[in-house]
C-alpha cells in the first residue's frame, strides 16, 4: 500500500523538479476535493489545484461540463481515484489535446476494500470500494 503513495509523491517531486524557482505553478486537476487537499499538502505553493467536484456532487453520477474539459486540457497532471469512481474522466482525458498530460490513478497498487457478496449483487462497486481515502492505512 505505502509503495503506491511513494510512487505518487515521487511523480509529484519529479514534476516539481522540472523548473526553477521562477517557473509557473504546476496545474493539477483532481476528481474529488480530498485529492485536491492531498496535492496541496504535498505541492504547497508550487501547485495550482482544481477539483472537478466541489464536494456536494455524487462522483458516481457526475456529468462534466465544458469548463471541466478545459481544466483537464490545460492541466499538467490529473489525479484520480480509479476503480470506477471517476470513470467519466476518461472522456475528458481522451478529448484533451494535451499529449504531455500525466494521469495518476491512486487506486493502482493499493489493497482495495472488498465489497460483501450482498453489496456486490446490489450494484455497488464491482471493482472494490473506491473510497480509498476513508481507509487510514491507504490515506
Describe this structure in words.
The protein is an alpha/beta fold. The protein has one domain (26-134): Nitrogenase molybdenum iron protein domain (Rossmann fold, 3-Layer(aba) Sandwich). It has five helices and four strands. Helix 4 (89-95) links the parallel strand 3 and strand 4 (102-105). The protein is globular. 24% of the residues are buried. Belongs to the bacterial solute-binding protein 9 family.
Give the gist of this structure.
This protein has helices spanning 2-16, 33-43, 66-74, 89-95, 117-121; strands spanning 26-30, 47-51, 77-80, 102-105. It is of the alpha/beta class and 139 residues long.
Query: Shape, please?
Result: globular
What's the architecture, going by CATH? 3-Layer(aba) Sandwich
Task: Please name the fourth-level CATH homologous superfamily.
Answer: Nitrogenase molybdenum iron protein domain
Strand-residue proportion: 5-15%
Strand order of the largest sheet: 2-1-3-4
> Structural class of the secondary structure composition?
alpha/beta
Biggest beta-sheet profile: 4 strands, parallel
Separation of the first and last Cα atoms: 9 Å
Radius of gyration: 15 Å
pLDDT averaged over residues? 77
Secondary structure: helix percent: 25-40%
Q: What are its keywords?
A:
139 residues, alpha/beta, globular, single chain, 5 helices, Rossmann fold, four-stranded parallel sheet
Please give the structural blueprint.
Layout: H1 2-16, E1 26-30, H2 33-43, E2 47-51, H3 66-74, E3 77-80, H4 89-95, E4 102-105, H5 117-121
Parallel strand pairs: 1-2, 1-3, 3-4
Region (Disordered): 119-139
Keywords: Signal, Transport
Protein name: Zinc ABC transporter substrate-binding protein
Amino acid at each position: 500500500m505505502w509503495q503506491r503513495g511513494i510512487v505518487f509523491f515521487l511523480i509529484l517531486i519529479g514534476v516539481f523538479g522540472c523548473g526553477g524557482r521562477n517557473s509557473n505553478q504546476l496545474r493539477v486537476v483532481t476528481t474529488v476535493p480530498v485529492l485536491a487537499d492531498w496535492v496541496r499538502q504535498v505541492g504547497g505553493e508550487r501547485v495550482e489545484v482544481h477539483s472537478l467536484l466541489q464536494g456536494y456532487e455524487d462522483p458516481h453520477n457526475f456529468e462534466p461540463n465544458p469548463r471541466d474539459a478545459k481544466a483537464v486540457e490545460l492541466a499538467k497532471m490529473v489525479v484520480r481515484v480509479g476503480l470506477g469512481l471517476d470513470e467519466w474522466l476518461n472522456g475528458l482525458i481522451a478529448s484533451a489535446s494535451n499529449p504531455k498530460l500525466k494521469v495518476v490513478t491512486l487506486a493502482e497498487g493499493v489493497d482495495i476494500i472488498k465489497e460483501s457478496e450482498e453489496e456486490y449483487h446490489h450494484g455497488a462497486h464491482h471493482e472494490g470500494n473506491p473510497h480509498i481515502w476513508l481507509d487510514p492505512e491507504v490515506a
